[in-house]
Design goal:
The structure is a single chain. The chain has one domain. The longest helix has 10 residues. Strands 3-2-4-5-6-1-7 form a seven-stranded antiparallel sheet. By secondary structure, the chain is α+β, with helices and mostly antiparallel strands. The relative contact order is 0.28.
Length: 129
């Protein structure tokens, strides 16, 4: 699965987006999937509910992930796996890396949506500056 790194940041180097912005770019690709969340560290109003989702290890509907993403201030770390009904493996993976960048892995169509919504995008794993 091909992936992209997202690094849009302000002049101080702080990211200017969060999970909610990535999900907005993906549109119905988010809603059509069930999501599992691992290793989430976040701040804001929805922290306890996010931690409960991670602890239980059960999938949540895309609409619930969208709601949770809007209720946290920042996701510091975490991996989000999206599966459509009948899929054996996730078809979209979104990962926050220590508040420094996000990675999105998925189909070419999914990645085109991401590329159109962000300015500082490069192939995942790129060492470019």
């Amino acid at each position: 699965m091909r992936g992209l790194e997202l690094r849009d940041a302000d002049s101080r180097g702080f990211l200017t987006f969060d999970l909610r912005d990535i999900l907005a770019c993906l549109g119905s690709d988010v809603i059509d999937r069930t999501w599992t969340c691992q290793g989430v560290d976040c701040t804001g109003e929805g922290v306890d509910e996010f931690f409960d989702v991670v602890y239980r290890g059960r999938g949540i509907p895309g609409s619930k992930l969208v709601d949770l993403s809007r209720r946290v201030l920042q996701i510091i770390d975490g991996t989000f796996y999206g599966r459509c009904p009948g899929e054996d493996a996730p078809s979209i993976v979104i990962r926050s890396v220590d508040s420094t960048l996000w990675e999105v892995f998925g189909s070419d169509e999914c990645l085109r949506k991401i590329e159109s919504g962000f300015d500082n995008v490069r192939p995942a794993g790129s060492d470019a500056g």
